[in-house]
Amino acid sequence: MPRWRPTGGAIAVRTYDSAWLYPVARDQPLAEALADTATRCKAPAGTEAQGEAISFAADSASYVTIGEGSKPVLTTVSAG
Q1: Nearest residue to 11 via CA among 30, 26, 27, 35
Q2: H or E element: which one contains 12?
Q3: 5-40 burial by CB neighbour count: b if 16+ within 10 A, else e?
Q4: pTM of the model
């Protein structure tokens, strides 16, 4: 599930082994933004065995990722 950047302008998508940031223009449909793979960028993510989630911090200054398992580690990545 994509996560919207609270201050706007981007969404983050987490896959099992990577994270992607997609720029989103004001009023742009989500499907259109996700279809534009030329403008997405690969984002740093934790070294989880199997990535499960990504979310922006409320101030958009960072985002967090987490994998699955009984003791997953929460990784914080500075968005700046």
Answers
A1: 30
A2: strand 10-14
A3: beeeebbbbbeeeebbbbebeeeeeeeebeeeeeeb
A4: 0.76
The alpha carbon dihedral of 59, 54, 40, 34 has a sign of: negative
Structure tokens at 42: 């690969």
Q: Tell which residue, 12, 17, 78, has the closest CA to residue 47.
A: 17
Averaged pLDDT, groups of 10, the chain, 80 residues long = 65 85 86 90 80 84 85 81
